[in-house]
TrEMBL record:
Keywords: Membrane, Transmembrane, Transmembrane helix. It comes from Nitrospira defluvii. The chain crosses the membrane at residues 41-58, 70-87, 93-112, 119-138, 144-164, 176-194, 200-218, 230-256, 268-289, 301-319, 331-354. The lineage of its organism: Bacteria, Pseudomonadati, Nitrospirota, Nitrospiria, Nitrospirales. This is Uncharacterized protein.
Length: 366
């Protein structure tokens, strides 16, 4: 396998380290008797997965897109923050590193917006600011069950901005763009309400989740590309299934409201972070990883294995939550972890490969 940009590998490795250790901590939170480096390690599951893995990956992708050497400071800081968490260093040091990394992403988007002022770049810039504010709240000692909705909004707004960019190919009417802005405002209003009324804030954010799921399902180009073949269809299937999970998470937030722990909390968060966010990752991985590393990557029908496994195991986990079936929740969660490992294996083995047949390269409409 030839990698044209090997200097980016350490940054990607830091993100992968955060993913794998975050998954390990998540298994402990589910009640599996896994060895941990210290008793409180399971509490790091959320920060490792969101700021350590996803924040590093998004920052790295945007640094590559901007093409400025200074921009790589953002993924470096978040990746080092994750390393400090895993190594057992001072929590405040990790928080400051991740706070610095999220501030770096804001600066990256400021530069991007100057170059390309548009609704989609501004939307993603707002997402970066939301992440920065969420990390600031975490640094100031706010509980993770509250901060996690800021982290979720960062990911949703960023992803929505990316999809809005491609939605331009369908010439989205101004009225639909106005609805999009209203829904983002609804989500942001829910975040601002969390401090005063956690329950009302979660429900309002949930309404934003549902609205954006419906908007994306209606206006995303994936509605058209799902009729095609190969990688193009695979990406569309991942996207549309992810929007369904986003709607389910929003509906659960509307029904359950502000629950800080327990099975209902698990439904809201993991329908979002596993069902929605990882469906988006599965969709974009065949594009992002070759772009970041400068390596070839072939689409393989085997990619559907980790997509199908994600949805079936998540259904099992959330059914366990809803029915009070503890074993189902635990086993489903364990299989969620197996799914993510399978995804990494499928992705790594496809890197450096040539396409299996014409039309299956990573250069496909998304």
């Amino acid at each position: 396998m030839t990698i044209r940009h090997p200097r980016r590998l350490p940054l990607l490795a830091l993100g992968m380290m955060a993913l794998l250790t975050g998954v390990w901590a998540g298994l402990a939170r589910l009640g599996w008797n896994v060895p941990l480096p210290r008793p409180d390690f399971s509490s790091l599951h959320g920060p490792l997965m969101v700021s350590g893995f996803l924040g590093t990956l998004i920052s790295l992708e945007r640094a590559v897109a901007l093409g400025q050497p200074w921009a790589y400071a953002a993924p470096l800081l978040t990746g080092l923050g994750a390393l400090v968490l895993v190594a057992g260093g001072p929590l405040v040091a990790a928080q400051l590193l991740m706070l610095g990394g999220s501030a770096g992403l804001v600066v990256i988007f400021a530069a991007i917006i100057r170059r390309h002022p548009a609704l989609y770049t501004s939307t993603m810039g707002v997402g970066a600011v939301v992440w920065l504010l969420g990390n600031l709240l975490w640094f100031l000692g706010r509980p993770v069950f509250l901060v996690v909705f800021w982290w979720a909004a960062f990911l949703l707004i960023t992803i929505a901005g990316e999809r809005l960019e491609l939605a331009r190919l369908q010439q989205v009417p101004r009225g639909a763009q106005a609805v999009f802005l209203f829904l983002v405002g609804l989500l942001l209003s829910g975040l601002l309400l969390l401090e005063g009324s956690f329950d009302a804030g979660v429900r309002l954010a949930g309404a934003g989740f549902i609205g954006l799921a419906l908007w994306l399902g209606r206006h995303d180009i994936a509605r058209r590309t799902v009729r095609q073949t190969g990688l193009t269809r695979f990406i569309a299937v991942c996207l549309l299934s992810g929007y369904a999970w986003l709607g389910i998470s929003g509906l659960a937030a509307l029904i359950y409201g502000g629950v800080p722990v327990g099975p209902q909390y698990d439904v809201i968060l993991h329908a979002f972070f596993l069902g929605f966010v990882f469906a988006m990752i599965f969709a974009h991985a065949p594009i992002i990883f070759p772009s970041v590393l400068g390596a070839r990557m072939a689409y393989r029908p085997l990619f559907y294995a980790h997509v199908v496994l994600l949805h079936t195991t998540l259904l099992m986990r959330l059914a366990g939550d809803a029915a009070g079936w503890g074993a189902g929740r635990q086993i489903g969660g364990l299989l969620n972890a197996v799914t993510l490992v399978l995804f990494l294996a499928n992705t790594v083995t496809a890197l450096g490969s040539l396409p299996e047949r014409p039309g299956t390269t990573t250069r496909a409409p998304t």
